[in-house]
Design goal:
Elements: H1 2-13, H2 24-38, H3 40-51, H4 58-75, H5 78-91, H6 97-113, H7 117-133, H8 137-153, H9 157-173, H10 178-194, H11 198-214, H12 218-234, H13 238-255, H14 258-274, H15 278-289, H16 299-315, H17 319-333, H18 341-358, H19 362-378, H20 380-397, H21 399-423, H22 427-461, H23 471-482, E1 489-496, H24 499-506, H25 508-525, E2 532-537, E3 540-546, H26 550-565, E4 578-584, H27 591-607, E5 613-614
Parallel strand pairs: 4-5
Antiparallel strand pairs: 1-3, 1-4, 2-3
Helix pairs in contact: 1-6, 1-8, 1-10, 1-12, 2-3, 2-4, 3-4, 4-5, 4-6, 5-6, 6-7, 7-8, 8-9, 8-10, 9-10, 9-23, 10-11, 10-12, 11-12, 12-13, 12-14, 13-14, 14-15, 14-16, 15-16, 16-17, 16-18, 17-18, 18-19, 21-22, 24-25
Length: 615
């Protein structure tokens, strides 16, 4: 999870190039921020002096204090960072959506540092709403990627990659800045590394690092390098990881960033532990420990550090010392109410059981193992979701391995055939057989690959309950078939009214019947059109209507809703209605904004009586 944390942290430091409107104060903000990312220490001094000057507007005060809070967080001065965030919040003008979104975006990172993940996610979503109101599409895309990284931290993997992919599509479609691509690449690096696809994770981390280097961006440079170091470490490229962490230590000292003088030694200690260099691991862990509670307050980092000590002392057959650190982790876990509490608890309990076993306290070790089993069962569903997501992600990455393995097996089989025929004096026949086998194997391989690819694509693009297309498919359809090619299209999001009551009163089986029948109705109604639909989530469906204006789309969806109301879709013969929101694509409108407009219209329909269409 360290890599996901620093993805969020990095993304938030690289989100402000080329983002401002033409107003003069935002232009000035841009110049200030560019210098701050290149010369953080000098800009801290200048910003502190600027804040004391006369004639500074409230908006400028809020911006400068937010930037100071960010720079102090980068350095690791938690107390000052918190103080400047609080001061900036008091100065936020109520009529400036952009500056409110700016503060919310970076405050969400500080909330993550405090271990307040739900608050962090709430803040980044509020930031997105503010940027929509401010009509700043690039900042909106960046905020979406931050949310995706936060959801990785919360282990909501399918939702996270959905959001990150959507941000990637919007960034590419609108040809957004290199800085925007930096945090997109960084989020992708975190996702693939989390899914244990380290080659891809490394690839995207290097792309992000190169952008930071090209931009002369010191503040983003260190987080990028740290993500790359962690990717090397998790991929078991231990020599590369050790060298990477050593580079971090030197750079951290050079730019006077104590935060990374905690993180780099802690990371390098993990590498030393894997290399069985236990004395070096202890030295590095103690160096990192000296910065705890000053530059680092996130419970996740401190628990990981304590457990690093415990692993090292266990390797040195010193279970008493290991237990001291385990108890410190357990104390932190009692107040650490968040999704990853289960994971950290399981790691700590595993180390506790090992320590107690080394001490011969077998009854206590057994109790720790029982609790570990209970927590493992609780985490099984989440783990299964991750495995399913990992399997989907791994498909493309393993194709080359499959080809190589098949080629190797083919050569072995051919060699056996050749040896057999050669012994029988039929060498010429052997060459013919090998040629035929080669052609057959290549043909069979190509066919199997095509079938496997098509099956994978169907699974990835199909809702398992209704058999309809899913959200992933429809977003790809819009991006590849409509965006930039056809501006005249409308979108509608439909929602079955009072669907929760159907589930509560009649059971989920009847609710599933309703969803399946509604999907079948849409399939029938759209069969002879060029329109597309998908299950968008829960009881929501989305319909894409090329070549329809807003008024035409409104009428078409209205007829659909009337048709739905006239049918009995379930065994219970109940009448269902639906509400819908319709929006039309406009020049310069981002896909995410278009969907949000349709969603807003849907909620207006639901809040004003349901069983209607709003546009």
């Amino acid at each position: 999870m360290r890599i996901i944390y620093f993805t969020v942290y990095l993304v938030c430091f690289c989100c402000s190039f080329n983002l401002f409107s033409s107003t003069s104060f935002r232009t000035a903000f841009l110049v200030t921020e560019q210098r701050a990312l290149a010369e953080p220490n000098q800009l801290i001094e200048e910003l502190v002096l600027t804040q004391a000057a006369q004639g500074i507007s409230t908006t400028e005060h809020a911006y400068n204090n937010t930037l100071l809070a960010r720079l102090y967080l980068f350095k690791g001065d938690i107390a000052r960072s918190q103080s400047y965030f609080a001061l900036a919040q008091q100065q936020l003008p109520k009529d400036d959506d952009w500056i409110q979104g700016y503060w919310l975006m970076y405050r969400s990172v500080f909330s993550l540092e405090e271990g307040l993940l739900p608050e962090s996610i709430k803040q980044i979503r509020l930031a997105q709403n503010a940027f929509i109101q401010a009509n700043d599409l690039e900042m909106l895309v960046q905020a979406e990627s931050i949310e995706g990284a936060l959801l990785l931290w919360q282990e909501e993997y399918p939702k996270a990659i959905e959001i990150i992919e959507n941000a990637y599509i919007e960034a590419k479609t609108a040809n957004m800045s290199s800085t925007t691509m930096l945090y997109v690449y960084d989020s992708l690096a975190a996702y693939y590394s989390t899914m244990s696809l380290f080659e891809k994770g490394e690839q995207y981390a290097v792309l992000a690092r190169d952008i930071a280097s090209k931009n002369g961006d010191v503040v983003n440079g260190l987080p990028v390098i740290y993500i790359l170091c962690m990717t090397y470490e998790r991929a078991e490229k231990l020599d590369s990881a050790a060298a990477c962490y050593e580079e971090m230590i030197m750079l951290s000292a050079m730019v006077k960033a104590p935060r990374y003088l905690f993180l780099a030694p802690a990371g390098k200690a993990n590498v030393a532990l894997k290399q069985k260099k236990y004395s070096q691991a202890l030295q590095l862990l103690n160096l990192a420990k000296s910065y705890v509670n000053t530059v680092i307050v996130n419970p996740a980092h401190i628990i990981a550090l304590n457990n690093g000590f415990a692993k090292t002392f266990l390797a040195l057959q010193q279970p008493e010392q290991a237990l001291e650190y385990i108890q410190a982790s357990e104390l932190l876990l009692t107040d650490y109410d968040r999704p990853l509490n289960n994971r950290y608890s399981r790691n700590t309990l595993s180390l506790k059981a090992q320590s107690l076993e080394q001490l011969g306290r077998f009854a206590e070790a057994t109790n720790a193992l029982k609790l570990l089993i209970k927590l493992t069962e609780q985490a099984k569903e989440t783990t299964q979701q991750k495995l399913e997501q990992e399997a989907r992600s791994r498909f493309e990455s393993t194709q080359q391995d499959i080809k190589l393995q098949l080629a190797e097996e083919k050569l072995k089989y051919q060699q056996i055939t050749l040896d057999k025929l050669a012994k029988e004096g039929q060498l010429q026949a052997a060459y013919s057989v090998i040629g035929i086998l080669a052609i057959l194997s290549i043909t069979i391989f190509a066919l199997n690959q095509r079938k496997a690819y098509l099956r994978s694509q169907r699974r990835a693009n199909t809702d398992p309950l209704t058999g309809a297309h899913n959200r992933r498919y429809i977003l790809d359809f819009i991006a590849s078939q409509l965006i930039g090619k056809q501006q005249n299209f409308s979108v509608s999001i439909l929602d079955i009214d009072h669907f929760k009551q159907v589930n509560d009163q009649y059971g989920h089986d009847i609710g599933d019947q309703a969803l399946i029948a509604f999907s079948a109705l849409l399939t029938e109604q759209l069969a002879d059109t060029e329109y597309q639909f998908a299950r968008f989530g829960g009881e929501e469906f989305i319909v894409i209507m090329p070549n329809l204006t807003l008024a035409q789309g409104h009428d078409f969806i209205g007829n659909l809703c009337i048709c739905l109301k006239s049918l009995s879709l379930t065994d219970k013969k109940i009448t269902l209605t639906s509400s819908a929101g319709v929006a039309q694509m406009q020049p310069g409108l981002a896909l995410n904004t278009l969907l949000k407009i349709a969603d807003t219209n849907l909620y207006h329909a639901k809040n004003t009586g349901r069983d209607k269409v709003c546009s």
